[in-house]
Amino acid sequence: NLQGTYNIGPDESDCITTGSIVELFCSKWSGAKWNATEFNGPHEANFLKLDCSKAKSILNWKPLWNVEKAIEATVEWSKAYYEDQQDIELVTLKQINEYLEEIKAWKESS
Questions:
Q1: Are 81 and 37 contacting, i.e. CB atoms less than 8 angstroms apart?
Q2: Which one, 23, 43, 53, 76, has least CB within 10 Å?
Q3: If phi over 0 gives left and psi between -120 and 50 gives alpha, with beta otherwise, what is residue 3?
Q4: Distance between CA atoms of residues 105 and 101, nearest Å
Q5: DSSP code per residue over 50-77
Q6: What SS3 state is found at 17?
Q7: DSSP label at residue 29
Q8: What is the CA radius of gyration of the chain?
């Protein structure tokens, strides 16, 4: 029975802080900068992480992309939308097809 909810997220080795994600994002988008500011809102946990063990055990799932590849794809999409005014539907479909090709290659090599 495959019913239920599943968390899909990064591998254990790719669990990094929000600041590290933003730094990585900025390193992939030339000229992007950020700075942390004080926030006096409600307390948030210092570290949040999805538990993907159910998807791994029941679906035999594993992430294909590491955090760097995922951020690169996010930057590619964002730049296409915000800087280049490309047809975002075409960019999205291109990225989905590339990912599906990676899944196919992974299945063939397993």
A1: no
A2: 43
A3: beta
A4: 6
A5: ---HHHHHHS----SS-HHHHHHHHHHH
A6: coil
A7: S
A8: 17
Q: How far apart are CA 1 and CA 8, in angstroms?
A: 18
pLDDT tens-place string over residues 30-41: 999 999 888 777
CA-based nearest residue to 36, from 45, 48, 26? 26
Neighbours of 99 (CB within 10 A): 14
| CB-based contact 71:28 (threshold 8 Å) | yes
| Confidence grade of residue 27 (pLDDT, cut at 50, 70, 90) | very high
- One-letter identity of residue 44: E
Residue 57 — very low, low, confident or very high, per pLDDT cuts 50/70/90? Answer: very high
21: which 2 tokens?
């994600």
Percent of the chain with pLDDT over 90: 56
Which pTM was predicted? 0.79
